[in-house]
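Posted in: Structural Biology > Protein-Ligand Complexes

Title: Requesting predicted complex, S-adenosylmethionine in pocket

I'd be grateful if someone could produce the 3D structure tokens for the following input. Sequence and ligand are given below.
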Amino acid sequence: MTTDQAVVARLRAAGCVFAEDEARLLTEAAGSPAELDALVQRRVSGLPLEQVVGWAEFHGLRIFVDPGVFVPRRRSEFLVDTAVSLTHEPPRPVIVDLCCGTGALGLAVATALGGAEPGGIELHAADIDPAAVACARRNLEPAGGHVYLGDLFGPLPAALRGRVGVLICNAPYVPSPEVTFLPPEARDYEPRVALDGGPDGLAVLRRVAAAAPRWLAPGGSLLTETSDQQAPDMTAAITAAGLTARVHSSEEYGATVVTGSSDLSRTDPAFPPGAP
Ligand SMILES: C[S@@+](CC[C@H](N)C(=O)[O-])C[C@H]1O[C@@H](n2cnc3c(N)ncnc32)[C@H](O)[C@@H]1O
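-- Reply #1 --
Done. Output follows.
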């Protein structure tokens, strides 16, 4: 049996469905036979492939994924496409990615809208988990993005208030009682703070919706990912905040995105652009 065949056999025995593809990626990532053995060992012990090789493909980009950081999911590419489709004016809006994890979603929107070269587009991101912030800095800072550590809007510069055109938030939305039923790759290797959305899954997202109008520019949009079942409650939270809610669904991605748009003609004296 060749080394390649042996790797495929070990992965298949561990239950990896795409054993050939994974073997190829692990072999490419390894610098030596000993390193390959170590990488395969980590993978068969259950670590997500992306955390083992250190990157994930997302919306055509290669995104760094550090151990212990949420792996961006393919279904979230639908949120990126929705953000791009909602953006008309200005063509290069200020983008904020809250609960950013690796920062994949913000970087993908920035890249799609204006190219993510330094100075190309204004991109800010934040997360409460220091490991996620360190990882997002690796992904976003080369593109000129800024990443902050803290709870939701708390660490953002006050000067962003009333200026955000695209406010992305893929927060944790699994209801607490359902976390235990997630696949072991998520349950064991992604932090609970990245998964657990409280009793009905919407605890973090409700807080985001309530505060979003203070940060959105006139005509700007909040974009959230939820389950299909959660969409009506998320719609209610966004409507209660004074935004125009809309549900977008994709069978192709198996994804639901609930957006909240601010009135284009809003001139709200309570939230003048840039006010602290
Ligand atoms: C489901 S993961 C999504 C990460 C990223 N948006 C993505 O789609 O790949 C949720 C992220 O929210 C962060 N998070 C959870 N509660 C937070 C809070 N109160 N403030 C900021 N970030 C939070 C977690 O650390 C985690 O990185």
